[in-house]
Amino acid sequence: MTTITQRLVFAGLLLVVGLLAQRAQGAEDKTLVRLEAPASALLAALQKEGFDIAAYRPGKYLDLVVTAKERAALEARGLAPILRCTTEDVRRNLGLAPLALPGYRSYAAVRAELSALTAAYPNITALYDIGDSRGKEYATNGMAGYTAYQHDLWALKVSDNPRTEEDEPNIFYLGAHHAREPIGTEIVMTLLNLVLTNAAFAADITNKQIWFVPIVNPDGHKIVYDGSDVWWRKNIRDNNNSGGWNGGDGVDPNRNYGFEWGGDGASATPLDETYRGPAAFSEPETRAIKTLVDAHPFVAGITYHSYSELVLFPYGYAVGMRAPDDAALRELAVRMALSIPGQNGGTYTPQASWELYAASGVTDDYAYGQRGTFCYTIEVAANEFIPPAAQVPGICRNNIAAAVALLRRVDSATLTGHIRDAASAAPLCATVYVQGVDNTGAYRAPYTAEQTFGRYHRFLTAGVYAVTYACFGYRSVQTNAIISASGPTIIDLAMVSAPRRTLAGLVRNADTQVPVTNALVLVTNAPVAAVQTDSGGSFSVTNLPEGMYAVRVSAPGYAAISMPVSVGGSDTNVLIALPDNINESFEQGGFNSLWTFGGSTPWTITSAQHADGAAAARSGVIGDNQSSSMAAMFDVTQAGDVTFYLKTSSESGYDYLRFLVDGVERAKWSGETPWQQVQYVISTGMHTFTWHYSKDANTVGGADAAWVDVIAFPAGVPEPALLLPLLLVLGLRLKVLG
Ligand code: 0X9
Ligand code: ZN
Question: What pTM was computed for the model?
Answer without folding.
Answer: 0.84
